[in-house]
Amino acid sequence: MATTADIRNGLCIELNSDILKVIDFQRFQVGRGSGKVWTRLKSTTTGKVVEHTFQSGHAITDVRVERRKFQYLYPEDGAIVLMNQETYDQISIQEDLIENVKFLKEGDVVDVLFHAQKDTMLSVELPTSVNLLITYCEPGLRGDTATNTLKPATVETGAEVRVPLFCETGDLIKIDTLTGAYMERVKK
Known about the structure:
It is a single chain. The protein is mainly beta. The protein folds into 3 domains: 2-62, SH3 type barrels; 65-125, CATH 2.40.50.140; 129-186, CATH 2.40.50.140. Helix content is 0%, strand content 55%. It has no helices and 16 strands. The mean pLDDT is 88.
């Protein structure tokens, strides 16, 4: 058993007979009352994000999880096929259960969280950023640099990203997989 003092980002807890992952949290004190811990939790079964507030010192049931490395092989009928890096076993996961799957390309390695006691899959975590090649974008207008203007670009996985005007077709860019935002241009 843990308490609210143990809450951190990425912690998996059991609440209302569901396993939830802490996305964000904040501790605060209101007047003379006891402190509270506000959390944003994501369900590992449905993918819904809920907010929950705990009293400080409240007991929570933490879930022991294991991270296993899997390699993305290929898409298959609305699902993706992943291969365990150690045992070479393959599993199939529905695409809608994975956030921002559009940034995955063949050969990328992802972390799959498993419930340690039950050995069931909880969620799939993409790397924090990926390097992708721009396959198509409109040319930028010369001299239009007074503002931080962005233009749409299609990357090699088929996803569309907003990039600065100086980016061109054939550039390698770094993308934040959490927000889908352009981070920087990468040297080849």
